[in-house]
Amino acid sequence: MSDVxxxxxxxxxxxxxxxxxxxxxxxxxxxxxxxxxxxxxPSMADDLHVSPATAGQSITVFAAAYAVLSPVLATLLARLxxxxxxxxxxxxxxxxxxxxxxxxxLAVLLAGRVLAAAGAAAxxxxxxxxxxxxxxxxxxxxxxxxxxxGLTIATAIGVPLGxxxxxxLGWRTAxxxxxxxxxxxxxxxxxxxxxVPGNAxxxxxxxxxxLRRPAVLTVLPLTVLGMGASYTAYAYSVPVLDAVGVSEGxxxxxxxxxxxxxxxxxxxxxxxxxxxxxxxxxxxxxxxxAAALGALAxxxxxxxxxxxxxxxxxxxxxxxxWCQTPPQQHRLIEVAPQETPLVVSLNxxxxxxxxxxxTVLGGATLGSGAAVVYGLGAGIAAVALLFLRWSASRN
Length: 395
Fold this sequence. Notes:
Elements: H1 18-35, H2 41-48, H3 52-55, H4 57-76, H5 82-101, H6 106-133, H7 140-169, H8 171-192, H9 204-208, H10 214-217, H11 220-234, H12 237-242, H13 251-276, H14 278-302, H15 307-322, H16 325-335, H17 340-365, H18 370-394
Helix pairs in contact: 1-6, 1-7, 1-8, 4-6, 4-17, 5-6, 5-8, 6-7, 7-8, 7-13, 11-15, 11-17, 11-18, 13-14, 13-15, 13-16, 14-15, 14-16, 14-18, 16-17, 17-18
């Protein structure tokens, strides 16, 4: 789900991936911060004296702020030296998590999440760009894969670890640990990474001009639909998994399975897209997501407890939800090859817009029961599949 931009700066280091590994640790922190809230939403809601659906707004505002701020910050901060930018972005992210951890009420928490989104939106695209500029040309793809891997690994283990930390130590401590990791990586980057100059500033109007292309406009909405389908239920993992027989203490293990599915789905989708094309991979992904969420809806409605089956469905759900990014990026690059960095960045904004949409819809239907939430996610996945077939026939 990375919005990696290709840096215009010349390489400043002739080999080695040491700085890239630290950059990947930063994307791991960003990914953990972005999704960790889903693992302790009920306890956070209880502590702040609001409903889980209301507490879910913290995920919504983060996603919406990221989607809006990503292209804006890319324009405003273009000329800033890259090391300075990355260190400051992680520092902002760390301070924002501390503010969220100490929040006395929902308003301060939401403000902290908006600030965290600003730090994440400034860090993630530039981390990938810098990693590509710091290594020899033959290592650039590997460096990009390492940085992107930080996000997917966060989905696999960062979020479950955050859930476990909140279970044993409290949600405030969990956010405090994420803040500490952000500040630690910021300090490491300040020491390890060489300075890389900024890029020429491209006006925001120029960056967004590509949105006037009909071919691009038929691809980006699919990203919103696909991520919205997955996050309708994922944002409220604890209550909806409880409805299918998963105890709160077992939720971290289910989130691990979801994350493992996400990593596997992301990796497999890249290989399969090269072999069979984007449409085939996306068709399989949206079909699998609709089937997995539909089956979970049936189990919730029937009040049936078959934990091994639930585990398999959660694994499939994670794989289907995160197999979208490689083929969607491939489709965008095909329709706008001259604006590759820009359309990939816009796809990332669409990812977070979808996460925000799914969280809103899930929160609005959570009171009606988990079966409705799962069913809504399955329905959106089916709509995504139909939209895919329509858009593929036009491009």
